[in-house]
Amino acid sequence: MLKIAFFILLTALPARAAEAVGFRHFTLSQDHDRTLDVAVWYPTDAAGTPVRQGEDDSFVLQPAIADAAIPHGLHPLIILSHGYGGNWTNQDWLAVDLVRHGYIVAAANHPGTTSSNMNPSVGARLWERPRDVSALLDRLTSDPVWSSAIDASRIAAIGHSLGGWTVAELAGGRFDPDAFEKDCRNHKELISCGGYLALGVGRDETSRAALRQSLQDARIKAGVTLDAAVTRGFDVKSLAAVKIPCW
Questions:
Q1: DSSP-derived pairing of the beta strands 63-66 and 20-29
Q2: What global pTM score does this model have?
Q3: Buried-state track 214-231, b at ≥16 Cβ within 10 A, e below 16
Q4: Are 6 and 222 in contact (CB under 8 A)?
Q5: ∠217-161-104 over CA atoms, to 5°?
Q6: What's the structural domain count of the chain?
C-alpha cells in the first residue's frame, strides 16, 4: 500500500529527474514566539562534494551539497512532518530520494515534540504542528529565492506518526478531543492514548477549542500519512469531506 501511495504521488506531481542534491538549513521565527529549525533539500546542477548533513545516531544520513545553487525552473514541493520525539533527519532518506525525482523537499522540527525540544507544555498544543507547516509554506512561497523554483500549484505533504496526524489536519480532517478521549477510556492499551495523556493535550476549554478548529491548508494538493497517530479522534464526516488525494 505504501509503495502504491508513493507511486501515485510521484505520478500525480511529475517532476524532472535530478542528479545532484543540494541542502540548506535555516531557522524560521513565527510571530507567536515559536522558532522552527528547517532543512530543505533540492535538485541542483552545481558541482561540489556531497557530505552528510546534520547528526543522528539512529539513521545513516544521505549526502548532499550544502548551500548549492538552487536550480532554474519550477519544481513541485513536498513538506515532511516528523513524529513524536523525532526530527527532520528521520526522513532524510526519503527527502533525498524525492529530490532525485526532481522535487524540492522541506522539513521543520516541531517545537515541543522534537528530539531537541521535548517540552510537554509546548507539545500539548498539537494544533501548532499544522501551523508550522503552513508557516514554512508561507516562507518558501514568498521568499524570492525559493518561490522562483517552486511550482505553487504542486505542493504535497508527507507525515510519519504524529506527522501523519499533522498531514490529515492539513488535508481537512477535524479532531474531536471528546471522541478521542472516550475511545481511550475503552482502549487504554493504545500507544497514542498514553502519549496524549503524557503531553496533557486538551486540559482546558481553550485548548479543546483550538484542537477542534480547521487547520486545512488549501495549498496542499496531496498527502501521505505513514503510521499516523491519534487518528481515532478525527471526525469521520470531516475525513469523508477531504477533497485531495490522501493516503
A1: parallel
A2: 0.89
A3: ebbbebbbbbbbbebbbb
A4: no
A5: 55
A6: 1
**What is the arrangement of strands in the sheet containing 222-226, beginning at the earlier edge strand?**
51-52, 63-66, 20-29, 35-44, 104-109, 75-81, 150-160, 222-226
b (16+ CB within 10 A) / e for 88-113: bbbbbebbbbbbbbbbbbbbbbbbbb
| Residue range of the domain that includes 62 | 2-240
* pLDDT tens column, 42-52: 999 887 766 77
Instruction: Name residues whose C-beta falls within 8 Å of residue 206's C-beta, 6 or more positions apart in sequence.
Output: none
- Amino acid identity, position 183: D
213 in a structural domain: yes
214-230 pLDDT per residue, tens: 999 999 999 999 999 99
The 8-class DSSP code of residue 92 comes to H
Alpha-carbon distance of 166 to 174, in angstroms, equals 11
Asked if residue 247 belongs to a domain, the reply is: no
